[in-house]
Write the structure tokens for this entry.
Amino acid sequence: MKWIGPPTDTVRPCFVDLPALPDCPDSRPPARRFDWRVTEWSKCSQSCGPHGRRHRRVDCLIMDGSNETANETECSRLTPKPKSAEPCNAQINCPYWVIRPWSEVSAT
């Protein structure tokens, strides 16, 4: 509870989490805050080469301690949505077999 107004006998408590009351104009609920929550990246789908992808979960949360998810548009108003997938291990060249012509057998 937050007291708003001058300290007089007629002051009544104004609750910050309730809609504004006529005699408590500053008692509107605080603006809801939203933010992105991301999990750790998954293991890459490929150990080498250009086709590996890794993934993570990206959710928009209501930042009130409840961990409830919100519509993504709420978070997107503030910051762009973080990537939920990206390439990985593309810089690692995959090993491959090299086939060469047969050589002469050495007799010893």
